[in-house]
Amino acid sequence: MAPTKKGEAARETKRKRGSVNSQKPEPAVKEVKPVEKEVKSLKEEDLLLDSGTDSDYDGDSLSGSLNSDDFDSDIFDSEDDGSQRDTEDGERESLGDKDHGHEGSVGNDDNGDESEQVDSEDGMEDGSDEGSEQGEVAEESDSSEDEVAPRNTVGNVPLKWYENEKHIGYDINGMKITKKELRDKLDSFLASMDDKKNWRQILDEYNDEEVEVTKEEQMLIRRLLKGEAPHADFDPYPTYVDWFKWDDAIHPLSSAPEPKRRFLPSKWEAKIVLKYVRAIRKGLIKFDKPEEEPKVYDLWGDSTSDQKNKHLTYIPPPKLKMPGHEESYNPSLEYIPTEEEKASYELMYEEDRPKFIPKRFTSLRSIPAYGNALNELFDRCLDLYLCPRVRKKRINIDPESLKPKLPSRKDLRPYPNSCYLEYKGHTGKVTTISTECSGQWIASGSTDGSVRIWEVETGRCVKTWQFDEAVKRVAWNPHSDFSILAVAMGRDLVILNTELGTDEQQENIKELLQLGNVPEPKASVAAIASWLPDEKNGGIIIRHFKNISSIDWHRKGDYLSTVMASGETRGVVIHQISKKLTQKPFKIRGLPVTALFHPSRSYFFIATRKNVRVYNLLKVEEPVKKLETGMREISSMAIHPGGDNLIVGSKEGKMCWFDMDLSSKPYKTLKNHPKDITNVAYHRSYPLFASSSEDSTAYVFHGKVYNDLNENPLIVPLEILRGHSTSSNGGGVLDCKFHPRQPWLFTAGADSIIKLYCH
Amino acid sequence: MNVEGEDTSKKIQAKFVTKLDSPFKAPATPYVISSNVTRLGLSSVVNSLLKLHHHEPFDFLIDGELIRMSLEQFLLAKGISAERILEIEYIRAVTPRKEEKPSLHDDWVSAVDGSSPRFILTGCYDGLGRIWSSAGSCTHILEGHAGAISSVAFANSQDAESVTVATASKDRTLRLFKVDTAESLDTTTRLGAYKILRGHKAAVQSVVAQKSGSMVCSSSWDCTINLWDTTEADSEGVTATVKRRKGNNQKEETQSEGEAQTTFVGHTQCVSSVVWPEDDVIYSASWDHSVRRWDVPTGKDTLNLFCGKALNTVDVGGEGSALVAAGGSDPILRVWDPRKPGTSAPVFQFSSHASWISACKWHKSSWFHLLSASYDGKIMLWDLRTAWPLSVIDTHKDKVLSADWWKGDSVVSGGADSKLRISSGISIS
Question: Where is the BOP1 N-terminal domain (chain A) (predicted)?
Answer without folding.
Answer: 162-416
